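Researcher: Here's a chain I'd like modeled. Treat it as a single chain, no partners, no ligands.
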Amino acid sequence: MITVSNLRFRYDSGSTDVIAGISFQIKKGEIFGFLGPSGAGKSTTQKILTGQLKSYSGSVLVAGAEIRNADRQLYNLLGVAFEFPNLYEKLTALENLKLFGSFYDRKLIDPGKLLGMVNLYDDRNSLVGSYSKGMKMRLNFVRSIMHSPELLFLDEPTSGLDPVNARIIKDIIKGLREKGTTIFLTTHNMNDAESLCDELALIDNGKLIVNGTPADLKLRFGEDKISVTLRREGFRILSEHSLRGIGSDEDFLETLKSGEIETIHSCEASLEDIFIKVTGHGLTGTFSDNSDHA
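Model: Modeled as a single isolated chain. Structure tokens:
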């Protein structure tokens, strides 16, 4: 669905590339997570992939077409929901959806149904200017899917949402994947990335650092050991053992017999751990050179 080859980009006001020769592919029907700290190049990449920035070098093929040469028909296939909603605040939610729906040459999902999906139906006739941030985020999300796009770009889709509404949005995203929608997701939320994404790419200072499935990355960068927590004679004891030859490890087997087991699990790395390991800093870091172009 998307093929990016040796992509580079530099803002007119900058002296260095904010995107420094990255390449990746996104298959049709998968959720591709693009992770990195503020200033890493996530938003710039997303703006290139959606055709907003055209003065790049390299190649960006979206649905088989170079995105800088995209025509109206290609944009009919795209849905976009950025982190900061761009809505008409003097219109109601229904009026917003009807207005944006008029831009597409495709069959639209009923606006009332969309609002009902994200618990906004009762507020359908309220001015968007009176909405909370979370309500605007939900409206912005359903606006991006109202034309059943084949390729959906989401930027922090659960930002500002309470746990219940965040779960609703994630369930809708999973449902879209099951129907074959390709989704490009940028986020700082590691739980969202791990629970939603089929493939992840970590970007730092405009360079692609590592990519793979969440499970593969956690195994690749995790520790090759197992941790056991047990209670013995009133005390909680933590014991760690190498995974290699675990079935015949006498020390491990004796540990299992020596008390009441409370927890037992492999020592997988978290996505935050992986990012720190490969970059030397966390996902919440910022970079002074490019921080205006996150």
